[in-house]
Each structure stands twice: as C-alpha cells, then as structure tokens.
Amino acid sequence: MADVFGMALMDYHQGNYTEDIITHSSLDEEDTIPLPYLFRDYEKMPPLEKKALALAKGKVLDIGCGAGSHSLYLQKKGLEVTALDYSAGAIMVCQERGVKSTVNSAILSYTDDKFDTLLLLMNGIGLAGKLNNLERFLQHLASLLLPNGQILLDSSDIIYMFDQDEDGGYWIPNTGQYYGEVEFTMTYKGHKSDSFTWLYLDYNTLSNACLSHNLNCELVCSGQHYDYLARITKK
C-alpha cells in the first residue's frame, strides 16, 4: 500500500509543498486535506483539541499522530509523549520535527507499553473502521491504560450529511451498515492509496458501546458542527 499520507507530509516538511491530498469517499464527495493544517501550532487548533490537550496527563500515547503537532505541544509542556502512526512517512516527519519517542505501527498491533492518557484526535476513533470492530478496538485501547488512565477522543455525527424530511427525520440509505462507515481513497501527486473504511461515530452509539464493556464514557464538550470530545475510563 502506497504511503500517500506520509509522502505528502514529507513533501510539506521538506519545503516541496505544491498540492494537497485529495480524498474520494463513498459519500460521493471529493475533498482535500490541506497539508498546512496538519502542521498547525496550538493557536490554530480547534477548541475541542485544545480541551483534550488540557486534559492530557502523565504518560501519553498520541494515536494516529500524523505530523506530530499534538505530541510536540504536550512534549513542550513537559509530558512524556509517544507518537504512534501506521504511516512510516508520518513517523519520519515527527522525528525530524523533534518528537522524542515514536512508534511506526498500527494501533491494534501495539502492546509494548501502558499509558495514563490515550489521545485519538482529528476523529481518531475512525481507526476502528467499522461499527462491528468497535468492541475489539475499545477493549484493545483499555488494555493499554495504566490504573486511573483515560482515553480522550473526538468524532463527528455525520447524520447532517443526509437529506432531512419535514418532520426532522433523516433519509439514510438502507445499505445494511451503520451510516457513519465511510469508504475512502486518497490521491496525491499521481499516487493512490488503497481504499479504507473510516468510522464517524455519534456519541450515543459510543456511549452504549462503552456501557456494555464496563467502561465509563463522559461527554466532555460538543463542537459547533456535530462534533464532540469524549473521555473514556475503566470502571
């Protein structure tokens, strides 16, 4: 699988920025991931991310760290941070930007250490892929927590992307799958990624999944566009 994401991050980091990543999704929309946004400093981060960074404590695992912006901020605050990403290019960029501890791995393959805070920002729960993977994903995350540890994650309820009728109900295609499962491919400078599924999860579904697996789930705050920050702890 071409590391399209890592390639783009490396280009931007090395001063070869000429275009953004283009995403194609099963929602029939073409969109872009602006590379400068992935390198933003704290001032340019949305309120949900700032809140999560304020709540982060102790030993932190930044899951799906990308270019390492969250890790660098927490590191400067004096926290012990490990940045983890499946993209080798992303990890290389993190290292070159000064992140001290990095891991190039899929999160489900990682079992090396335990942490006080697991950080999954920029819709990090999307890494679960599909709703029927959520149970396994949450259990694995919980296994990486130290006593009194926490999982901080944000996501969006994408129900707003579907047509609404006069009664306020939504017209969701009956595909047999959860409406928040979105299939993506990324293209960048003629390179195309394999397709992958990303999970956008409404808070009630997350909360119910936690409840049935002996986890506490707390809605920390809601954003302006169907997005939210949640905190999960072991009971």
Automatic annotation (TrEMBL):
Domain Methyltransferase type: 61-152
Alphabetized UniProt keyword annotations: Methyltransferase, Transferase
Gene Ontology molecular functions: S-adenosylmethionine-dependent methyltransferase activity
Lineage: superkingdom: Bacteria
Any single GO BP term: methylation
InterPro entries documented for this protein: Methyltransf_11 (IPR013216), SAM-dependent_MTases_sf (IPR029063)
Name of the featured protein: Methyltransferase
